[in-house]
């Protein structure tokens, strides 16, 4: 029985998506170390980090003396991959210019690992969405970077904002690109907890 929901993230995009789904939740950001020393493929990487983030927040709650047996902790990690390489958030505007130049007129993949934790029950899976960018001119890339939108965004773009003008084709869950795999979340709720977003929206 789920009585409370915690989002283990301070991501504005993830908060907006859960609010869109009319799910009541509290935010407790994770401070988990995101450095991984072992070699993992993209799916394993996001699953590992989403699990670690959820564990960090669960430990915080336990340290406060909270009973987490009926608290659903949602944790997520999202990355962009191009030709086998992980593309994270841009270090600066010059990095964003370079990244968008590489992604122009090509396919890349967005992976999100999602972990749902309810007491001792812990389930982790990942979603993948493939995105094809049209050819983007140097002028367009420069103008886009100057808006500041690429800052703090994996892949240096926001698909739900001006960055949508670059996407020519999408295969998979759109919201996964934004940062939270809604289709995977819905499936995991049903398969592992026998519930759905309509039930938990009534909490």
How would you sum up this structure in a few lines?
This protein has 7 helices and 7 strands. It has 203 residues and is of the alpha/beta class.
Model description:
- The radius of gyration is 17 Å and the shape is elongated.
- It is built from 7 helices and 7 strands; from the N terminus they run βαβαββαββαβααα.
- The longest helix has 22 residues, at 42-63.
- Helices cover 35% and strands 25% of the residues.
- Strands 1, 2, 3, 4, 5, 6 and 7 form a 7-stranded mixed β-sheet that branches.
- It is α/β, with parallel strands linked by helices and 203 residues long.
- The mean pLDDT is 94.
Count of individual helical segments = 7
**Bulk shape:** elongated
Helix content: 25-40%
- What is the terminal separation in angstroms? 11 Å
Class derived from helix and strand content: alpha/beta
Q: What is the mean pLDDT?
A: 94
Largest sheet data: 7 strands, mixed
- Report the C-alpha radius of gyration, rounded: 17 Å
**Number of DSSP E strands:** 7
Give the SSE string.
EHEHEEHEEHEHHH
Percentage of β-strand residues: 25-35%
Uncertain stretches of 5 or more adjacent residues: none
What keywords describe this structure?
203 residues; alpha/beta; seven-stranded mixed sheet; 7 strands
Fold topology:
Elements: E1 4-7, H1 12-20, E2 26-27, H2 42-63, E3 71-82, E4 85-87, H3 93-103, E5 107-118, E6 121-133, H4 138-146, E7 167-171, H5 174-178, H6 182-193, H7 197-200
Parallel strand pairs: 1-2, 1-3
Antiparallel strand pairs: 3-4, 3-5, 5-6, 6-7
């Amino acid at each position: 029985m789920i009585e409370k929901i915690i989002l283990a993230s301070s991501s504005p995009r993830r908060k907006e998506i859960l609010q869109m789904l009319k799910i009541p939740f509290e935010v407790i950001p994770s401070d988990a170390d995101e450095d991984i020393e072992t070699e993992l493929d993209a799916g394993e990487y996001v699953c590992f980090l989403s699990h670690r983030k959820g564990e960090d927040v669960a430990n915080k709650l336990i340290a406060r003396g909270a009973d987490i047996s009926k608290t659903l902790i949602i944790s997520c990690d999202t990355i962009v991959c191009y030709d086998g390489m992980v593309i994270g958030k841009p270090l600066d505007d010059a990095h964003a210019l370079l990244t968008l130049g590489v992604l122009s007129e090509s396919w890349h993949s967005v992976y999100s690992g999602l972990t749902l934790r309810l007491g001792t029950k812990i389930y982790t899976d990942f979603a993948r969405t493939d995105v094809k960018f049209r050819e983007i001119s140097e002028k367009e890339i420069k103008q886009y970077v100057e808006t500041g939108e690429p800052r703090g965004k994996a892949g240096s773009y926001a698909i739900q904002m001006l960055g949508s003008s670059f996407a020519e084709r999408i295969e998979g869950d759109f919201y996964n690109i934004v940062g939270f795999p809604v289709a995977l979340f819905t499936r995991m709720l049903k398969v592992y907890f026998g519930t759905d977003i309509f039930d938990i929206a009534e909490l």
